[in-house]
Amino acid sequence: CLQWTTVIERTFHVDSPDEREEWMRAIQMVANSLKQRGPGEDPMDFKCGSPSDPSAAEEMEVAVSKARAKVTMNDFDYLKLLGKGTFGKVILVREKASGRYYAMKILRKEVIIAKDEVAHTVTESRVLQNTRHPFLTALKYAFQTHDRLCFVMEYANGGELFFHLSRERVFTEERARFYGAEIVSALEYLHSRDVVYRDIKLENLMLDKDGHIKITDFGLCKEGISDGATMKTFCGTPEYLAPEVLEDND
After folding, report:
1. Residue 115 among known ligand-binding residues
2. Phi, psi (deg, nearest 5) at residue 213
3. In a domain, 210, yes or no
4. Mean pLDDT for the chain?
5. Which residue in 76, 105, 151, 249 could disulfide with 244, CB within 3.0 to 4.6 Å?
6. Global pTM?
7. Residue 54 domain-assigned?
8. Would you call 77 a catalytic residue per the annotation?
9. Are residues 137 and 212 in the same domain?
């Protein structure tokens, strides 16, 4: 009996040597479990689990937790309120295990549902998880409680570009060109992944500790938009919208 075998290669990117070791232990655990299968067992006969099959899901959760413990709100110290909006708030937190600082975005589920913002929230989560660029805010963890959604993101401690422009009134041409180049670089990256941002404004442009741009808030992103495609949705902040959009001109 002949059987085709396909070799699949995967590249994993981690942030620290500890995470690398965790991944290696998890992969080795899976390899060992495959070796322990009986001669009559089909290695492809694996049940992923479903809402009607909680036992399989629990087994998977246990296996994953061995590689990396599940993150909860108790893993952080809550230091300062960074911002507050309709759907929730952003808090400066410190991870107890590493001592690193992050910005935790906490959204209330009931408000998201009541305001019909579920689709935007799902889009933001997906974009955060699927993108990695030096001028986009990176997602570290995402988890939920019974009434909250929590996104733990890198902390851009340089503040909003809105604050800096309000304080200085005008940027030099060189400085404006520098920020503009980084913004365009980030947007080109999103476009290469068929994502349109749709909410560029000073309040969504943060600066990191080195003065580089970090674009944040991906709730109004539109996915699956290829070159040449157009969109008709009226969205964004009125003060920043083009006149023809406000006037609804095609």
Report:
1. yes
2. -70, 140
3. yes
4. 80
5. 249
6. 0.66
7. no
8. no
9. no
35-58 pLDDT, tens digit per residue, is 555 544 443 343 334 344 444 334
Rg (CA), the chain: 22
Instruction: Report which of residues 5 and 230 the model is more confident about.
Output: 230
CATH no. for residue 131?
A: 3.30.200.20
Which of these is catalytic: 77, 147, 199, 210? Answer: 199
pLDDT at 151 over 80: yes
Using alpha carbons only, give the angle 101, 153, 115 rounded to the nearest 5 degrees: 130
Residues 6+ apart with CB under 8 A from 231: 196, 198, 222, 225
Please identify, among 154, 184, 219, the residue that sits at the C-terminal boundary of a domain: 154
Q: Say if residues 248 and 211 touch (Cβ distance below 8 Å).
A: no
Say if residue 59's pLDDT is above 80: no
Among 83-87, 123-127, 209-213, 246-250, the range with the most confident prediction by mean pLDDT is: 209-213
pLDDT at 150: 94
pLDDT for 32 equals 62
What's the pLDDT score for residue 66? Answer: 40
- Cα atoms in the 13 Å half-sphere on the side-chain side of 50: 3
Domain that holds residue 88: 73-154
User: Cα–chain-centroid distance for residue 218?
Assistant: 8
CATH of the domain at 225: 1.10.510.10
Claim to verify: residue 132 and residue 190 sit in the same structural domain: no
User: 198 with 148, same domain?
Assistant: no
Residues 216, 166 share a domain? yes
